[in-house]
Amino acid sequence: MKKIYFTLLIAIFIIGCSKDDTINEIQEEQEEEIIVNLPPNNFNIEIVNISHETATIHWDEASDPESDAVNYDIYLNQTLVIENISELMYVFSNLEELTNYSGKIIAKDTENNQTEVTFSFQTEKYYLKYLKIYDFGENVNGPNGLAFGTAFSMIKANDQNYVIAGSSSFNGDGQRFFVSKIDYEGNEIWKKFYDYQVGSSWNFKIIESITGFILVGRHHVLSLDNQGNIIWYKKIDTYDINDAASEIKSVAQDSNGNIFIVGGRGSSEPEVVQEAVLTKLSNSGEILWENIFIPSLRSFFNDVIINSSNELIILGSTETSGITWDEYINGPSSVEEIDFWVLNITNEGDVLWENTFGDGRFDFPSKIITKSNGNYAFAGYSWGAYDISEGRIFEINLDGTEIWNISNELSSTFSVAETLDGGFITTGHVDFGGYGALGIYKFSSNGIEEWNKKYQRSFTSLHGRSILIEEDGGYRVASDDATELLIYKTDPEGNYE
What we know:
By secondary structure, this protein is mainly β. It contains two helices and 35 strands. The strands form nine sheets. The protein has a four-stranded antiparallel sheet with strand order 4-3-6-7, with no helix packed on it. It has a four-stranded antiparallel sheet with strand order 8-35-34-33, with no helix packed on it. Strands 9-10-11-12 form a four-stranded antiparallel sheet, with no helix packed on it. The longest helix has 32 residues, at 2-33.
């Protein structure tokens, strides 16, 4: 009986142990079943370099909890663009301008576990942008047989093409007129040279005329047809004197066809250094009269425009401190105070009003324009203490009263234009480092700087010579680099690339 009871206890113990083992095995199987392979972690996306037709997408690496390898699929507007890539960047191309796009990136591990992140962006408006390079012609004495040149003036003609005027080296160290016409895309239509010696003149001016174009510089006036052929030529003898500073600076034509040229020269009057000169010519180049302006020891005219009343608005400079000849001869070079000078003159030479603008610095006028509100704005630059130069912009009303003026870091400001939003765009040269840079500066309608761009080339001092507003809101800038004529076409933010 005891033996049977003992055997029964052993059996019960064995059965109990077997049951425990079975339960443990079930629990282990259940634990194994709840171990899940997780998808890749979340990640960030960045859209950069968006243009009218492309966009670049970057994203962080999506790390996998199990350290599996991760690949990516990219969708744009619900269309699979590319799949199973390991790179963390992709460039969308052939996009449409001003279009909203959305998409997603799917990160996948080796078990096809997925994490999805969405993105969206809008393409930009298309703007024609470029830097086109041309030459100033041939010169056997120049590098690689090319002529040195300077681009002084650029206009947009009625046929919507562009005409650039400047100088080109020839006959050893001589300089002659250079004129080129290009289309909107920058294709050269024609290029002409006029072998009149222009020396080291600081400025030329070309304008559109009734018969084509009028080109002036040094002591020359040329009437050109639309193909750049000479219709007539006039030498202004009163500028052809033994004075290196004697030159015609600008030209304008009124609605009657009369031509007005302005500039300055050394004066034959005693105790006068320079005199400002206004000359009226007929449409055929006949000199009708010449007026000389000597309000002080030194005066010069630099630019002229015609207003809606067929009157002349002239920008120049004049000495305003009233120093005597003896003070000029015996004093330091800083004894003069040269201020900006603006005059309103009838087409018969009568002064309606004149005013000077300055603050004690030595002022250099560049360009005057008529604003869309009827006021005038002019630009230039001013030398101050230690020969530090700053760009200047002034707005004045129809009576010549100053509304506001600003100084800015565009050290030599050569050109100004009114922008489509009523502000201003200027170009010139910014002094810094060894060579400085070509500067493009945008200002609001009351002169607050909004942005600027600076462009450089190695071992070159670039200058923006002339700037125009384009219908797309961008800009066109003429510059030069030794033997190269440079034309920048930018977007509204001044970018050309």
